[in-house]
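Quality-control log, excerpt.
Job 1 of 2 completed; input and output follow.
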Amino acid sequence: MPDQPLAEDENVGRTLRDDEIVQGVINRLAPRYEGAPTPEIESALQEELVAVGLGEQPAPWVHSTAIEISAGRIVVADSRAQVALEDLPGH
């Protein structure tokens, strides 16, 4: 099955790009929504993720991410995503 590793590599690359997009959305919303009500942040997250072409994300992930944003904590979508530290809120 020589094609299997290539297919897996393509899927990993796509996932990392998606994670970088998710991280960008989080980084844009976090400063604006720190301290905001969780449902408001959940709505903003879903709207922005749909707007960038990723579609709606699982409600449990959106909810926990919204809690972290509201509390002012840094949210990292995937540690492998290529995001500079200075791009994270609060840096």
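Job 2 of 2 completed; input and output follow.
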Amino acid sequence: ICRKCCFKEENVLCINTFLSSFSGFASVPVTGSCCSYSSLAWAFQTRCSISAPWNVTVEQRRQSSFFNTSTADELWKGALAETGVGVKKGRGKRRKKKLRKNLNKGQEIGEGRSGFLWPGLNAPVIQSGRVQAVTQRKKEERERIQSEIVQQRDTWEKKRKIKVKREGGWSGKCWGGVILDPPDPAPNGETYEDFETRVIEVKNVFSMKAKEGRKKSIRALVAIGNGKGAAGMCVYK
């Protein structure tokens, strides 16, 4: 059987249903060999006002790999174990957390391991007054470009996140005693610029859940006042 010309009977029946929904259109015959569907092109050309050749070539599209059937988000969820029974029940919560990597960083449109130069993508269309054709880089140049891309990705991963400097607390890096910004203005326009907000206590609280296991939360005690008799406090978890 010719795979390129193979046309499933179900697809033809769907087309027949589509054509029969319009008045005056007859169905396309299904009988015949796998290469005798030139009548399908004739039906589209005469009845649907579509200009098409007489010979129809239908090509099957199959995924060459499992990784082409899923999106990048679904593949990352499987690799990082973000979903499943183990995550819901708190399994492996003390292991080193894996982070997602943006594999598109450093990748230019048209560039690949084969090293082809595509005019209009990674090469100029016209050079020295002549239209350029598709060419391929030399092996040494391809290896150099790939090594540069890998080196760029390594440097991006090693970059540390910028930490916002804050005033120290009562002892070391403890949150106790840290001064925060004043509260936001009230809806009626009142401002609290003369108020001072200070963290009194921050501690971790652990609780056991039936499905999630040991769950961690943070409890904070914050006090605010203006030194003129107005003060308040808040506990947030």
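Post-run check on job 2. The mean pLDDT is 72.
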